[in-house]
From TrEMBL:
Recorded family membership: Belongs to the ribF family.
E.C. numbers: 2.7.1.26, 2.7.7.2
Stored SMART domains: Flavokinase (SM00904)
Entry keywords, A to Z: ATP-binding, FAD, Flavoprotein, FMN, Kinase, Multifunctional enzyme, Nucleotide-binding, Nucleotidyltransferase, Transferase
Organism listed in the record: Sinimarinibacterium thermocellulolyticum
Annotated protein name in UniProt: Riboflavin biosynthesis protein
């Protein structure tokens, strides 16, 4: 799958596509329906299946103080879209100039002139353009005039649950991992590249693989039983682990970090891209008065994770 960072980086002549538009945070079952139909149309028309997404999201741009947490990282989104058959992801910077683009101009100048869309698939509540003036009806009118087809997809329900990013975020905020998995169609996970850290975990007897999160996560901060997989490795091995998602209040820090300790084995993960699947919530993040108190709690967390996996294998 091709990743294009901004419409200005689209290769010359790379026009003609079946398109869907959205943030696709989490790529839940509702998103999968949109993308599945887009891919089907692309294959029928003989053009690339293309997703247009935005960074930051419009809500993060207009009201960053109250924007919702992110369900997934960009690397996680890339994995999901590739698995669904998407050929090209365009991540467009959302700024004041882009936000001011009138709905009709967006369709004519960007979707038609720049992308050459043959078909577009959107949710039936899709809004676009300055002041969110554009909607599905306008797309259909312009599609008839400009020569592309338009399909609207209604909301998707699964086992009585409406599958939306809002619903997934609500489940994650409550650390209800089973409900989140139903909405997503898979276990919840975060994907990222392992970076160097303070090495405090190693000094406390529990070395960790650290993923720095640039956006506030939707998942409740705390300690979880997880499985870690090294992606793009010769062997796809799920390693039992315990992870802390948080800002490390004991150290007085504020940047969110996912710290994962692989249980009972030494593994060098620096620089690797990994997937961390969340299996069970153990406890919320807490501040400890001393590093000794933190270290003791980390050992209790490790014991709880070991007990979980022992019970699962029994």
């Amino acid at each position: 799958m091709e990743l294009v960072r901004g419409l200005h980086n689209l290769r010359a002549g790379a026009t003609g596509c079946a398109l869907t538009i959205g943030n696709f945070d989490g790529v839940h079952r509702g998103h999968q329906a949109l993308i599945g139909r887009t891919v089907a149309l692309a294959r029928r028309l003989g053009v690339p299946a293309t997703v247009l997404s935005f960074e930051p999201t419009p809500r993060e741009f207009f009201a960053p103080e109250c924007a919702p947490g992110r369900i997934s990282t960009l690397r996680g989104k890339l994995l999901d879209l590739r698995a669904l058959g998407v050929d090209r992801l365009i991540v467009q910077r959302f700024d004041r100039g882009f936000a001011a683009c009138e709905a009709g101009d967006f369709v004519r100048d960007i979707l038609c002139a720049r992308l050459g869309i043959r078909a577009i698939v959107v949710g039936d509540d899709f809004r676009f353009g300055a002041r969110r003036a554009g909607d599905l009806n306008l797309l259909r009118v312009l599609g008839r005039d400009l020569g592309f087809t338009v399909e609207g997809i209604g909301s998707v329900e699964y086992e009585g649950l409406r599958c939306s990013s809002t619903a997934v975020r609500a489940a994650l905020a409550a650390a209800e991992l089973e409900r989140a998995a139903l909405l997503l169609g898979r276990a919840y996970r975060l994907v990222g590249r392992v970076r160097g850290g303070l090495r405090l975990g190693r000094r406390l007897g529990m070395p960790t693989a650290n993923i720095h999160l640039t956006r506030r996560p939707a998942l409740r901060l705390g300690v979880y039983v997880v499985e870690l997989r090294r992606l793009c490795a010769d062997q796809d091995v799920a390693m039992p682990a315990v992870a802390n998602l948080g800002v490390r209040p004991t150290l007085g820090l504020t940047r969110c970090l996912l710290e994962t300790h692989v249980l009972d084995r030494e593994v060098d993960l620096y620089g690797a891209t990994v997937e961390v699947r969340f299996l069970r919530f153990l406890r919320p993040e807490a501040r400890f008065d001393t590093l000794d108190a933190l270290a003791a709690q980390m050992q209790r967390d490790k014991a709880a994770a070991l007990a979980f996996f022992a019970a699962e294998s029994a």
